[in-house]
């Protein structure tokens, strides 16, 4: 028996009725698999899925399903249209920074993260931030600044009464604030300023200078409670007595940002002076999943995973899952319609080809000779005997022309 011919890929109608999207997994099983894979490596998610619900999938399937969901969520963010911003908290804070991720090619790239929160005071009167949300992408600074509008718009940042931006002094961060909220109060992260002061103290000691045992703590206390003026004067005196390129560079950085180090004023106004929220976001959103031991990522898979990480860390998983599932179903139906149309066009082309190949030839009209003429008599064969299939004896087919003299043929005519 000859083997059965292979069939092509097709859609099973029952898959759409059951809502199946990937590898025959039910929607609930697929959601569980993706939720596990966004927290842990694919192999561990595969094993845990089998232990929890008894469903066996391969590591490749776990990876494919998770990234497909992430790509759908990323496409929704990129296709979101501009609309009126909702009403957000009156007092908000934003912070942004970058963390490095290792790619398959061996390159280290910077994943940028933006954190938005509401500023308030607790029962003890301490300034605190709450209702934090994150937005992370692997993108150039300009592209990240524009893409972050998805989250700032959702949080109503543009309609907040007052906004502050706590971050380090990188230029791309200042441009981000200019784009998102140009009137924001800009605050240099206190820990970042302390790092520069500490490096100046270490350079002074390396140059032979002697500093008090608690010099660093005293300088930070003065900076935090009295402002930067006296601190910068003291650091300038150290730079003059212990010349060093390192000291000059660090001092110039702080002097350029004097207006952003007015920490007593910021604290009195109820603003935070540290960007610990974005540092925590790096660990929870990015590093917890993308910086495991020996872990490397393909560039095009970073943003889909970051989108899933943002969804879970922002407590918006169910909303995002339903939206991505709907988007994938629509994409699947569109693909099905395209395949049906392509097959119909292919079948039509085949029918046209067969029709052109086998169509009957159209006879050309021939003028009939006049009755009684020589041509009419010559063209009319003699009748064949009844019941015979052979031509008559005087039929033109029986007149051999080859080998007969031309004159004889003409004379007979």
Q: Which strand order spans the largest sheet, edge to edge or round the barrel?
A: 3-2-1-4-5
Give me the secondary-structure category: alpha/beta
Q: Report the mean per-residue pLDDT as an integer.
A: 84
Number of strands: 5
Contiguous low-pLDDT stretches (5 residues minimum) are 409-413
Main pleated sheet = 5 strands, mixed
N-C termini distance: 66 Å
Beta-strand content bin: 5-15%
* Count of separate structural domains: 3
Radius of gyration: 41 Å
| Overall shape | elongated
What percent of residues adopt helix (DSSP H or I)? 40-55%
- Which sequence of SSEs, written as H and E, runs from N to C? HHHHEEEHHEHEHHHHHHHHHH
Number of helices: 17
What does this structure look like?
This protein is α/β, with parallel strands linked by helices and about 425 residues long. It folds into three domains: about 15-80 and about 330-355, no CATH class; about 85-190 and about 275-315; about 190-270, no CATH class. The chain has 17 helices and five strands. The protein has a five-stranded mixed sheet, sandwiched between helices. Strand 1 and strand 2 form a beta hairpin. The radius of gyration is 41 Å and the shape is elongated. The model is unreliable at about 410-413 (pLDDT under 50).
């Amino acid at each position: 028996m000859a083997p059965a011919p292979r069939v092509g890929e097709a859609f099973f109608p029952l898959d759409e009725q059951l809502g199946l999207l990937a590898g025959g997994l039910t929607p609930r099983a697929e959601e569980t698999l993706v939720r596990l894979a966004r927290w842990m490596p694919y192999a561990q998610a595969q094993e845990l899925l089998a232990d929890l619900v008894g469903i066996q999938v391969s590591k490749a399937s776990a990876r494919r399903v998770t990234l497909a969901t992430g790509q759908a969520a990323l496409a929704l963010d990129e296709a979101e249209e501009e609309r009126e911003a909702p009403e957000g908290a009156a007092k908000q804070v934003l912070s942004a920074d970058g963390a490095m991720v290792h790619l398959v090619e061996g390159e280290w790239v910077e994943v940028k993260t933006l954190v938005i929160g509401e500023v308030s005071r607790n029962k003890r009167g301490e300034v605190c931030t709450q209702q934090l949300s994150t937005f992370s992408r692997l993108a150039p600074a300009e592209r990240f600044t524009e893409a972050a509008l998805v989250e700032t718009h959702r949080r109503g940042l543009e309609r907040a009464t007052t906004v502050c931006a706590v971050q380090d002094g990188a230029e791309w961060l200042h441009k981000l604030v200019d784009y998102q909220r140009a009137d924001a109060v800009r605050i240099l992260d206190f820990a970042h300023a302390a790092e520069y002061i500490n490096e100046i103290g270490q350079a002074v000691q390396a140059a032979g200078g002697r500093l008090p045992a608690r010099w660093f703590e005293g300088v930070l206390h003065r900076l935090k409670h009295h402002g930067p003026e006296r601190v910068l004067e003291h650091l300038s005196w150290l730079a003059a007595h212990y010349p060093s390129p390192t000291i000059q560079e660090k001092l110039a950085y702080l002097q350029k940002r004097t207006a952003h180090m007015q920490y007593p004023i910021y604290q009195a106004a109820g603003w935070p002076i540290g960007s610990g929220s974005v540092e925590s976001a790096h660990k929870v959103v990015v590093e917890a999943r993308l910086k495991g031991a020996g872990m490397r990522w393909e560039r095009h898979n970073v943003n889909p995973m970051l989108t899933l990480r943002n969804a879970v860390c922002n407590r918006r998983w169910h909303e995002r899952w339903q939206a991505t599932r709907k988007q994938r179903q629509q994409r699947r139906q569109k693909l099905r319609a395209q395949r049906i149309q392509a097959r119909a066009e292919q079948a039509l082309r085949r029918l046209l080809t067969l029709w052109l190949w086998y169509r009957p030839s159209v006879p050309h009209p021939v003028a009939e000779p006049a009755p009684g003429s020589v041509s009419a008599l010559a063209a009319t064969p003699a009748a064949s005997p009844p019941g015979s299939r052979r031509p008559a004896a005087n039929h033109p087919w029986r007149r051999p022309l080859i080998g007969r003299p031309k004159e004889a043929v003409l004379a007979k005519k």
